[in-house]
Amino acid sequence: MTELMAQKQIHLVVRGRVQGVFYRASAAREAKRLGLTGWVKNRQDGAVEMVIEGEEDQVKDFLSWAQHGPSTARVENVETRWRSYTGEHPGFRIMG
To answer: What is the CATH number of the domain that holds 26?
Structure first.
């Protein structure tokens, strides 16, 4: 019998030089590559906020990507909150 992988959700707030450096587009590409769902958006305070859902291993892989982001970004801090999986996101989208 195979054990099902745990589905997880994380809420991330990424600070540093993360706006205007293709962070959101890169995050969307990485999430889709890993088979994850959720959303990413720029915040007015200059941070990028994300909700990511999927298999725990892929979520962890995304989290390690988020800590550096694309080569154009300079990530200074990633605030991470693990949450219960909701399944409410049909795909991955870039918001405002």
So the answer is: 3.30.70.100
